[in-house]
Amino acid sequence: MCGVSGILHKIVASASGLAPVGEQLIRMLEPMTHRGMDSSGVTIVGEQPEGDLLVRIWTDSVRNAPDVLARAEDTVRLVGGVVCSSRHTGQFIRIVANYEGETQELAAALLETPGVALHSIGCTSEVIKDVGTPMAMDERHDIGAIRGTHGIGHVRMATESIVDVNHAHPFWAYPFPDVSVVHNGQLTNYHKLRRMYEDDGHHFQTGNDSELIAVYLADKLAHGEGLEDALRASLADLDGTFTYLVATREGLGYAKDEWSAKPLVTMETDDIIAIASEEIALRGILPPEMAGEEMGRVEPQNSELATSGNEVTVLNPNARHNLGVGIFENCSIRFAGSVGYYAASLLDGPEVVIEGNAGWAVGDNLMNGKISVTRDAGASAGSTMRGGELFIGGNAGARAGISMKGGSLVIGGNAGFLTGFMMQKGRIIICGDAGEALGDSMYEGTIYVAGNIASLGADATVEPMSEDELIDVLAILESKGITDKRSFTKVVSAKRFYNYDSLERLEKSAL
């Protein structure tokens, strides 16, 4: 598990003409350190170096760093460049140079230079990455002092390759200046594609599968494709679960695999566009009036309040995870703001109101009680719920009601793909559209959809809805303030996958 973030300033208005992008990326990354503490990194775009190119290098020896710097400077001059400035901080080397040749020629020459690991070449950007947390990286590299127009960041939990500086993100799309990538996920066709790209002459510096995305985009750009087309093509060409961000000189882009297994949330104001793995990262850069920082805070883990039957208000929940979990008493809980993953899960009795968005798996394993989310909910809302009622006022992500065993899930907007997957009992009401594979492999239960259905899942079928059912559904929606829905498509299990008319030998012996 890793965390990604990105920020773009639409209008840069400051004395220097640049925004505090470095500081903002650190503020976005630090709340996500639970997603990975092995390494951190940023790309900051929009800098104004005193030369044509800004080169970032790492070497594996602090003692040899001055010699590596001297050799790298000689390499720049050898290919026709002029060194404008240079420095090394420990093992990290930064060179600004004037150079009129092909970037690929310079990059290839530097990679042949002993001791050089090339992290990036940019006209207005640089990649800075290191082992450890974002705060530790900021202390060593003074990221917060770097200004720009936009950038991307990453925190890493290493799962597929070693922990070192080179395997940290971002990865530069060699040899294209100002193109770099951060990634959360796993590519299952990494080795196949790597062999193919190496046969075509592409260069890899690490064994990190995320580097493949940078190489993939570089190959697409080299063949004349636009960045947007390359991003769209990656959805079919890259296999696995992934969410990645790409920074270019002009802006930011992102792509998610078709299963949307890796989270991503976005925010847009008049001034900025921000993207991150979790809402808590976005709140790190919101002004106080939007982030709720002026509010006091009552910790939701205060069991004396939560279990005494009192009404509890949690101020400034700040999209934290696991809020209001495991409460088995009748009480009322109000979250005055958005919550993170698994909010209001494992409940038996409480009534919960979430005034904002909810992350993954809100209402997971709800046994009894009521949960109301005023805005959108992430993937797997109401997963394995056994009773009670979960209402989502906005849209719900993929796999809502997965393995649902009872209760009612009401979605005021659209529902993502695989809603009702392996549903066993209960009822799902969708006031908007439903994504692909609705009701896939459902055993029992009923799904009602007011809008369009992208496709039915395996063994799901449509059957007529009775007048009594319609009256019942409309009454439920009216209690939620929804009065404009008048017709629904009813989806149930066709029961073709299972033999319901005969018992197995052990079942017979048990009767």
UniProtKB/TrEMBL annotation:
Gene Ontology molecular function terms on file: oxidoreductase activity
Pfam family, one: GXGXG
InterPro entries: GATase_2_dom, Glu_synth_asu_C, Glu_synth_asu_C_sf, Ntn_hydrolases_N
Superkingdom classification of source: Eukaryota
PROSITE patterns reported in the protein's UniProt record: GATASE_TYPE_2
Keywords: Glutamine amidotransferase
Location of the Glutamine amidotransferase type-2 domain: 2-309
UniProt xrefs under PANTHER family: TUNGSTEN FORMYLMETHANOFURAN DEHYDROGENASE, SUBUNIT C (FWDC), TUNGSTEN-CONTAINING FORMYLMETHANOFURAN DEHYDROGENASE 2 SUBUNIT C
Protein name: Glutamine amidotransferase MTH_191
Organism: Geodia barretti (Barrett's horny sponge)
